[in-house]
């Protein structure tokens, strides 16, 4: 039975901070105990498969796992989501549901590896249409969903795509900002 501090949850799975003695590897099958939130005192136990497990640098004990739920029906998934809807803010889903947990795993990696509480990073690839904008948008929404100040800058001057995902105008953008020289004095 895996018990730990719930970092995030969705109908597809959960991210948890677990004790060191619960070190898990990808593809391990686990029973995850989730507090039911009702007065009955009974908790939900859900089977899951570990997708990611990471011990963040600087942590004395514990690790973060992302686990995908196995064999749960739609009703149980809805119940799980409703139990935690006030605790976690889920962003609109831009990726298929089975990609939610990897995005949350990436978000957890960023959160728990950042010692200065400020970070900037670049998401890029060597060829077009590999999903840079989609991953960036989902990661940004996931970070903003847990009240992290998030700024996304689409630096693809040839074929920007973030404005389309968020339904924004691209009349002024990074090239306008750079050509006017604002912020560089």
Structure keywords:
five-stranded antiparallel sheet, 5 helices, 27% helix, 5 strands, alpha+beta, 185 residues, single chain
Describe this entry's structure for a reader:
This protein has one domain (4-152): Beta Barrel (Thrombin, subunit H). The chain has a 5-stranded antiparallel β-sheet. The chain has 5 helices and 5 strands; from the N terminus they run βββββααααα. Helix 2 crosses helix 3. The chain has helices at 74-84, 100-113, 132-145, 162-165, 174-180, and strands spanning 4-10, 13-18, 29-34, 44-54, 63-69. Mean pLDDT is 75; it is low at 88-93. It is elongated, with a radius of gyration of 19 Å. With 185 residues, the protein is an alpha+beta fold.
Task: Reconstruct the topology from this structure.
Elements: E1 4-10, E2 13-18, E3 29-34, E4 44-54, E5 63-69, H1 74-84, H2 100-113, H3 132-145, H4 162-165, H5 174-180
Antiparallel strand pairs: 1-2, 2-5, 3-4, 4-5
Helix pairs in contact: 2-3
Give the proportion of residues in helices: 25-40%
Number of strands: 5
The CATH class assignment is Mainly Beta
In round numbers, the mean pLDDT is 75
Short description:
This protein is of the alpha+beta class and 185 residues long. The protein is built from five helices and five strands.
